[in-house]
Amino acid sequence: MRHTTDLVAPDAGNVFSAAKQREIKKVIDSLEQFKPNRIAVEVIKENNQMLNEEYQKYIHADLEAEVNEVQQIGFPLAKQLGHSEVYTVDWMGTVGNRGIGNVLKWAEFNQPDLYEYIEEAYLTKEKTELKDKRIDRHIYDCNREESVKKEHELNLAITRIGKDKEYIGIDWVRCWYQRNLIIYSNIAEITKQPTDRTLMIVGCHEHVHILSQLLKESGCFDVLPATDYLQKT
């Protein structure tokens, strides 16, 4: 299964250890209290059939698990709730944009002060903060209002990368916004009835601010933060 890559991928350690699996199970049991009847995941929509073939293998204990939020949290939770499928809602197309790696590399050579600020204020911390930290606590912390706001600040900092009419950072951010608009549209597509309760599982928590904003401001959905259910330990 090829899932989307994140700007920063912290090292969670050996997630297959007994201790880490207990931490993950705690997250799953907490999210179960939301009682979702739809679980949406950060996988491109084109891979929906492939993902659900993997989910069926997981249900029948015929899948070698991978280290990602879909198979470690999404699949177990869906099975625990008796769901027959999970829903892919992501998009990873292009609009002629630069990749984030190229954007940061440009900043490193052309705007070193801004690059150093972004690296120290946001990226370095995210690369190290999961080491020796409980997974359940990390997921709770990522969903706190302060953390969500901080991640949105990172995207706005990236928009400042550029010079004169060279909008280097905005070139990437506009694609980021388009991606989230499409995720929002796909969530709306599967959340049709007033009784539907869709849980969105993402590995990249930079999505939380903008998706929450889009869903709330649509006037069609109530949005509950994950911290209403996750346990602070």
Write the layout of secondary structure elements.
Layout: H1 18-32, E1 38-44, H2 48-59, H3 69-81, E2 87-90, H4 100-110, H5 112-128, H6 135-142, H7 145-159, H8 168-190, E3 198-201, H9 207-217
Parallel strand pairs: 1-2, 1-3
Order of helices and strands: HEHHEHHHHHEH
- 3D shape: globular
The helicity comes to: 40-55%
Q: Report the radius of gyration as a whole number of Å.
A: 18 Å
Number of strands: 3
Residue windows where pLDDT falls under 50 for at least 5 positions: none
Strand content: 5-15%
The tally of helices reads 9
Instruction: State the distance separating the first and last CA atoms.
Output: 32 Å
Spatial sequence of strands, sheet with the most strands: 2-1-3
Structural class: mainly alpha
Report mean pLDDT, rounded to a whole number.
92
Main sheet record: 3 strands, parallel
Characteristic key phrases:
9 helices; mainly alpha; 233 residues
Describe this structure as you would to a colleague.
The chain contains 9 helices and 3 strands, in the order αβααβαααααβα. It is mostly helical and 233 residues long.
In short:
The protein has 233 residues and is mainly alpha-helical.
